[in-house]
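>> received
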Amino acid sequence: MNAIQSNVLVGGWEAVRLFNELIEVVVIPAKGAEIWSVTDLRTGIDVLWKAPWALRPHALSSATAGASQTAWLDHYAGGWQVLFPNGGDAVTYRGADLGFHGEASVAPWSLATTETPHGAVLDLAVDLRRSPFRLHRRMELAPGTSTMRFTETVTNCGVDRLPYMWGHHPAYGAPFLGDGTRLTVPAATYLADVGNAQGTARVAPHVRSTWPLAATPGGGTVDVSLVPGPNAGTADMGYVLDLDDGWYALESPQTGLGVAVSWPRTVLPCLWLWQEFRGGKDYPWYGRAYVMGVEPHSSWPGHGLLGAIEAGTARWIEPGATHEISVAVSLFDIPERGPGHVKSVDADGTVQFVSSAAG
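>> returned
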């Protein structure tokens, strides 16, 4: 059984539901093709974070504030966004104001749906206004699988070679996220963001460490792959670098459920790791957010396109060229031995575990 249900309402937004007997994915095309939820239908658990405040209805325009970051955060209530062609701070490039987290994350996308004997398919597309890019995403869900796959392309419709930042911004929350949730990534390095200087940061700003350890302000280390409980009162941003392959697994011992995400490391070579464990005391969190973003990205740091160009991490695309990523998102049961036994995640989303003999 696989199906598509259109005309679903989420906080006043028209959404589309892609589902089979095991997994449900809800997408809001007019809100940047945002993936609003990824739900395990056996348990009813949506692994993506939902803010304690309501999603603003479509009638309230995103132009509710002069600053693009404030406007974006006014309308942020969780889920999974695509960040393109800018990530993080707003910048001006070639006369265009590239807003916080990029135009693709807020622009309305077109939608076409197809149901075949082999699976249900969503085709979403958008032509950006502030830069000459076209994005297309094809989302597929086959019967009898807990894996949703999508292929996403960006095409330079202009006449000049152009830079971009391209990332995916899934944010995970309770009940899936909890004390002891473990992140497994085949990486070598953790780089704390330069902005981690507030009193609630548990990692020292702009320090490079060996993954999964991060340097603390007091001179010690903390394992940032292990999630503390909701009363931790910390907030940190960092980058997971030097990946051997493009995948991660996030395992929740409280629910017995895991999420695996795979993507091409050649295009998205790093992860942004946003850990907001009720440490943000000011707007928009006010101590209410218990959420972790594990975000495959093309570039770092997350302070806008100009910063990525300066750091040499922005990607460039020739006129008329198309760049592509294929992403697989799988829900899986944690082995009886508990979290930490994921060996790898294949490009098709298949999770491989360490053998019992290996411990």
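>> The helical segments are 68-74, 305-311.
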